[in-house]
Automatic annotation (TrEMBL):
Native source species: Asanoa iriomotensis
Taxonomic placement: Bacteria, Bacillati, Actinomycetota, Actinomycetes, Micromonosporales
Protein name: Tetratricopeptide repeat protein
Record-linked InterPro entries: TPR-like_helical_dom_sf (IPR011990)
Length: 407
């Protein structure tokens, strides 16, 4: 729904139900999205909730006004703990802008540098914090797309929009917000297709494949990972490497050893061809530390402990300081291997200590999800061990969903 259509629907609803003659237009909607207008009163909020099918004000996504951000009565309160305010309307506004085909020429290099910085930040910044930062810049990016019309800038700005959407997809995946992840994955595909760049399309598809994996949709994860590799053909790039590694992990969960090893081989071959910025610790890079984590995870699922432990050891050696997600996930895989070989108490003590080194925002999402999956895979005697109970209780401090789909 465009801003103009939304304004018309709100006006009609308010007149039909309350005989209010409010004449909102698309400019007013834009100001609400950017926090330049006061947050609407109750009857108007009701209209937005009904039309946008939102159950709470927080889901509507309008920013508080600048005056109210310091805590005034008009401020929009994010009473949920999902860090989701503004995400859906920003997504819809970007779709509208892309479909209009209006592309900006100015500040393209600035936007491309912004994307690079966000790519690096994904390795160290908690996803809840990153989500809010990306969302804020998306407002400005979408305004730029609406405001300027230049065919010469189309591909560059579409690529930027695709990469920003892919970063949003990745961040929502890390937070385990599955519905929002799928919506943004669709937007990222749209923007990547507009860019006409197969390498960007491959990277976008790889991010989507990871989201399907962590949602437990293994067949879809494998299918999208294959698409990410097929779209670039023989070109070796970050997206293809990421996708091959993810494909291996998904095969491993289902016990397909031969397919797992084949996909890992493709990931290794892609990595060997990467150079320069493609090897940086970033969402847009892929290096040996990441591959060893993925390899160790795959062999952990297959139950091949010697190969798993070797890959984990190498991953931990290479992991950059502050790159907490891969480090934590590798430590959890290591705990699985130790528990499998009979050292459940030792494994759970180490895993609990690892989790305690992370902040609550860092643990939230897929790290906690993986911890629950490990605990749920234990036998009843293993679950009753004191170290296991302590591990479980720590997980519950950041648990937002009881759904655990990957064993």
């Amino acid at each position: 729904m465009s801003r103009q259509e939304l304004a018309q629907e709100v006006n009609a609803y308010l007149y039909r139900k309350y005989k209010l003659g409010l004449n909102l237009d698309e400019t007013d909607i834009g100001k609400l999205e950017r926090g330049e207008n006061r947050w609407p009163r109750e009857k108007r909020r009701e209209a937005f909730r009904i039309i946008l099918r939102s159950t709470t004000d927080a889901e509507l996504g309008f920013y508080p006004t600048r005056r109210s951000r310091s805590g005034g009565a008009a401020a929009l309160r994010d009473t949920s703990n999902t860090a989701m305010p503004g995400v859906d309307l920003v997504r819809q506004a970007l779709i509208d802008a892309l479909r209009e085909g209006a592309m900006a020429e100015a500040s393209l290099e600035d936007w491309e540098l912004t994307v690079v910085r966000y790519g690096e930040a994904t390795r160290t910044r908690p996803p809840r914090v990153l989500l809010d930062d990306i969302r804020t810049d998306f407002v400005d990016l979408t305004r730029a797309i609406h405001r300027h019309r230049s065919a010469s800038a189309l591909r560059r700005l579409s690529r930027t929009a695709a990469q920003m959407s892919g970063l949003m997809t990745l961040t929502l995946c890390k937070l385990d917000h599955r519905s929002a992840f799928r919506q943004w994955a669709s937007v990222a595909r749209l923007a990547a297709n507009e860019s006409g760049d197969p390498v960007t399309q491959s990277w976008i598809l790889a991010q989507e494949a990871y989201g399907h994996f962590y949602s437990g949709d293994l067949a879809e994860a494998i299918d999208v990972a294959k698409q990410a590799q097929d779209v670039v053909g023989s070109t070796q790039c970050v997206g293809a490497a990421l996708a091959a590694a993810l494909e291996a992990r998904a095969y491993a969960v289902t016990g397909q050893a031969r397919e797992t090893r084949s996909a890992l081989g493709r990931a290794e071959n892609n990595l060997s061809a990467l150079e320069g910025d493609a090897l940086l610790s970033s969402a847009f890079g892929y290096n040996e530390a990441q591959l060893r984590f993925h390899e160790g995870n795959a062999y952990t699922y297959l139950g091949d402990l010697p190969r798993a432990l070797k890959a984990q050891e190498r991953a931990l050696e290479l992991c950059q300081p502050g790159d907490y997600t891969d480090w934590a996930m590798t430590q959890l895989d290591r705990a699985v291997c130790l528990a499998t070989s009979g050292g459940t108490n030792e494994a759970m003590r180490a895993a609990t200590e690892m989790l305690r080194t992370l902040g609550e925002d860092q643990r939230r999402g897929i790290i906690t999800l993986r911890g629950h999956a490990i605990f749920n895979s234990f036998t009843e005697p293993q679950k009753k061990l004191p170290a296991s109970r302590e591990f479980y209780e720590l997980l519950m401090l950041t648990t937002e969903s009881k759904a655990v789909l990957i064993p």
